[in-house]
Amino acid sequence: MSEFAKQSQSPITISLCMIVKNEEATIERCLRSVKQIVDEIIIVDTGSTDKTKELVSQFTNNIFDFEWIDDFAAARNYAFSQATQEYILWLDADDVFLDQDRQQLLDLKSTLSREFEVVSMLYNLGFDQYGKVTSQIRRRRLVKREKNYRWLGAVHECLEAYGTQLETTIAVTHQPLGHDSDRNLKIYERRLLKGEVFSPRDLYYFANELKDHKLYNRAIEYYQRFLATKQGWVEDNIGACGSLADCYYQFNDVENQLKYIYISFQYDTPRADFCCRLGFHHLNNNQLKQAVFWYKIATQLDIANASWGLVNYPCSTWLPHLQLCVCYSRIGDYKLAYEHNEMAAKFIPDDPRIQHNRNFLRSQLGNENKQDT
């Protein structure tokens, strides 16, 4: 952190601001992970009927009720308005700081220069069976209270915070135990019935909800409407292309799958997950030369660990190497197949596929050596 932050005369002070509803299963875990770091905890309850408020009262007396109006931004803005410390940190009830990140946050608190108005942190969203992060994005997490930054968007709200920013490697880890799967979709549907005109961002996130509920035709419609506005954030544009390819995959519409994979390249240089999509397409069609081309590109791209968009780590690490192992094995180049299997093993050494491939390829290479002699 030292190369980014300058020593302050004194540590900054932090208000933790959260909105909650029926979070008895996770709220204690969240607050325990951060209680020793923040100077104030603000909890805004939007209608809990379980033990959430009782559990929260062990950590703070700053518990406020807010009538739910189908607007997450309104609730978060109300929570921010109750803060009294220099900086505001926000979390969801199913988020935690793991030990290493908690220590980094403590270090940041004691060293952050007050010239920084916005601090972003990583958000760990998915993990593999070995506990390694598979998907990650970046979020603005800590903001200067006096700047009066506002939340925007009734659903999938975002914090509109601009100013002197610091990007850190501190991570918030998402550990959900479950969620109200229909809540966000119903909010969007009610807004549509009222005749509300959706912003480009709303179009994108409504399409995401439709896709998550397997309403693929409607999802396609709203992703296309979103892209047609030409006003979307570049990462959302790329995400929409990937989701459109997924939707068309459900209908076995290869032409449109490929169309939106290639359209994604118009918004930025190719991302590893799109290269793997193309590699998978060609591998399934036994077009091994083309499959090798795209999987090799995926291995050569930098992992955008500071990206504000979603980072899919398998597609940037072990997955293309494992698929190249398959490609080269089918071609009959067992030496290259073995090399890529070992490259994949650096990331997933205990995966049973690694040892299976290793055994098979060693036998093939042994046979080749016997033939040579």
UniProtKB/TrEMBL annotation:
Reply yes or no: does the keyword Transferase apply. yes
* SMART domains on file: TPR
GO molecular function (one): transferase activity
Record's superkingdom?
Answer: Bacteria
Keyword terms of this UniProt record: Transferase
**SUPFAM superfamilies according to UniProt:** Nucleotide-diphospho-sugar transferases, TPR-like
Task: Write down a Pfam family by its short name.
Answer: Glycos_transf_2
* UniProt domain Glycosyltransferase 2-like: residue ranges: 15-124
User: Quick check: keyword Transmembrane helix in the entry?
Assistant: no
Record's protein name: Glycosyl transferase family 2
Species the sequence originates in = Sporomusa malonica
